[in-house]
Amino acid sequence: MIAAQVAALIAVARPGPIAGHVGSTAVPGLIGKNVVDLQITASPAEVPAIAGMLVELGFARQRGREPRLPERPMLEGTFRCRGSVFLLHCHVVPATDPDVRQMIEFRDLLRRDPAARQAMRRTSSGSPPPPRTTPTPRQR
């Protein structure tokens, strides 16, 4: 519900790229880290404009020790609904990124596989890292 409302606000602000609900909150029955994750996949040329639009909507560029690279930003925000405040992470991922399908595939695995959901519930972080075959830009 929250993800759909925020995705609709994003779609009004910038028609075209779709904000998809990813992460543990996109899986019924999982609590995760209580952060609603959205992913917008776009052409690399569109990424800066989409990040700027998200800032105009009230999102903030990621803070912390290891923020995402500017070409694959993650913006943070909150959304108030029915008296509660929800934390939001909006990942803007270039369509050319080798990991563009990673969060979507992980969400889909958790939705269809009860054993994967159970393993997810047992983890303390709420999001076990999937196996990597290629290094991320930060690891190179």
Please supply descriptive tags for the structure shown above:
140 residues; Beta Polymerase, domain 2; single chain; alpha+beta; 24% strand; five-stranded mixed beta sheet; 4 helices
Structural class: alpha+beta
Overall number of structural domains: 1
Going across the biggest sheet, name each strand in turn. 1-2-5-4-3
CATH class: Alpha Beta
* Overall CATH architecture: 2-Layer Sandwich
Q: Measured on Cα atoms, how large is the radius of gyration?
A: 15 Å
Estimate the mean pLDDT confidence.
Answer: 84
Distance between the termini: 38 Å
Tell me what portion of residues adopts beta-strand conformation: 15-25%
Specify the CATH homologous superfamily: Beta Polymerase, domain 2
The helix count comes to 4
Report low-confidence residues grouped into runs of 5 or more: 126-140
CATH topology: Beta Polymerase, domain 2
Approximate shape:
globular
N-to-C series of helices and strands: HEEHEEEHH
Helix content: 25-40%
Strand count, sense and closure of the main sheet?
A: 5 strands, mixed
The tally of strands reads: 5
Describe the protein in words.
The chain has 140 residues and is an alpha+beta fold. It has one domain (2-122): Beta Polymerase, domain 2 (2-Layer Sandwich). It has helices spanning 2-13, 47-57, 102-112, 114-122, and strands spanning 19-22, 35-42, 60-61, 74-81, 84-94. The chain has a 5-stranded mixed sheet. Strand 4 (74-81) and strand 5 (84-94) form a beta hairpin. Helix 3 (102-112) crosses helix 4 (114-122). It is globular and about 40 Å long.
